[in-house]
Design goal:
Helix content is 34%, strand content 27%. The chain is α/β, with parallel strands linked by helices and 228 residues long. Strand 4 and strand 5 form a beta hairpin. The strands form 2 sheets. The chain has a 6-stranded mixed beta sheet. Strands 2-1-4-5 form a 4-stranded antiparallel beta sheet, covered by helices on one side.
Length: 228
């Protein structure tokens, strides 16, 4: 019998991740010595009070912000050893995002918003892929509507379709139900987890929504910038 000594590496891990900002003569510590491992296929909720550092942590995990000290490794790559262009390229290949405020481009239609990351990644069938995803999230009749013509729930469906468009290994979501009423929020939760299962994506989300956090396999609480 052959015994494998291989150990599955986490898709995302941090080491002593710290973020401080200057506030005049003082320095404010937002995050302190965050050590976190996320395995492939996990769904993790980051919870905590307002101002505990949740959104800052998500921004650092994505490489959208830089830490004062510490490391973030995404899919085997030390993201802060890369320059800004290389980090952007890594995000385009490996990450999907869902934001509380949807972050759709107002001058683009629903299908154009979903096509954009596909076109940036050089996908030659961007239109067909975007159409299929929008049909999957129930917006086949809204393909050519602009964001201002869509309800909040519809805009978040477009945002979810866009997030999954490049088949990312990791999906980061920041309060994805925060701007939605409870009924619409529940529909969005179901949709996001269905797509997550279908695509085999790893999910890390920041939320105040207790119902949403309980759907995750693990919950991580931040208290005053530290893991509790």
């Amino acid at each position: 019998m052959v015994v494998s000594n291989s150990v599955k590496k986490p898709i995302l891990w941090t080491n002593a991740l710290t973020k401080r900002v200057s506030t005049g003569d003082d320095e404010l510590t937002i995050l302190r010595d965050i050590n976190l491992e996320v395995n492939s296929g996990e769904a993790i909720a980051i919870i905590g009070a307002s101002g505990s550092g949740k959104s800052t942590l998500l921004g650092l995990l994505a490489g959208l912000d830089t830490p004062t000290s510490g490391k973030v490794h995404l899919d085997g790559t030390d993201i802060f050893a890369l320059d800004e262009d290389s980090r952007a390229a890594l995000r385009g290949k490996s990450l999907g995002f869902v934001f509380q405020s949807f972050q759709l481009l107002p001058a683009l239609t629903a299908i154009e918003n979903v096509m954009l990351p596909l076109e940036l990644s050089g996908n030659s069938s961007a239109g067909a892929t975007a159409r299929k995803l929008l049909e999957r999230v129930g917006l086949e009749l809204r393909l050519h509507h602009y964001p201002k013509q869509l309800s909040g729930g519809e805009q978040q469906r477009v945002a979810i379709a866009r997030a999954f468009a490049t088949d990312p290994k990791l999906l980061l979501a920041d309060e994805p139900t925060g701007n939605l009423d409870s009924a619409t929020g529940k529909q969005i939760i179901e949709l996001m987890f269905e797509l997550n299962r279908e695509h085999g994506t790893t999910l890390v989300l920041v939320t105040h929504d207790e119902q949403l956090s309980q759907r995750c396999s693990r919950r991580i609480r931040l208290v005053d910038g530290m893991l509790a």
